[in-house]
Amino acid sequence: MKTGFAIVRQIAVLFAFSYIGSLVAAWLKLPVSGSIIGLALAFAALKLGFIRLEWLEAGAGWLLSNMLLFFVPAAVGIWGHRELFGLAGLGIVAVILLGTVIVMGCSGLLAETITKRKEAAK
Length: 122
What we know:
It is a single chain. By secondary structure, the protein is mostly helical. The protein is built from 5 helices and no strands. The chain has helices at 2-28, 34-48, 57-65, 67-79, 83-121. Helix 1 crosses helix 2 and helix 1 (2-28) crosses helix 3.
């Protein structure tokens, strides 16, 4: 039970970073999502030692492991508007396929680069 409360507390801290990022984006009128700014703030806090990785690790791991659940409502919402598929169906499918290929390619290149650097460091 203690672990469950720790995960909830860590997720609350991550959401706080996201909320602060949203406030900063709105205040500065930046064309960047507040969650991206919050992520940058969390990264800076980790790198500068203001917070330790252990304080966020379990909550971030839980969010990542359940990430697919957060996309289901968006997919169901799109499916509810079938008229979009008639108007721009091929365009939507093309963007999804192209985005998937780009993400897979970038992920593969990044993983390969990290692996090479780790092998070179040995």
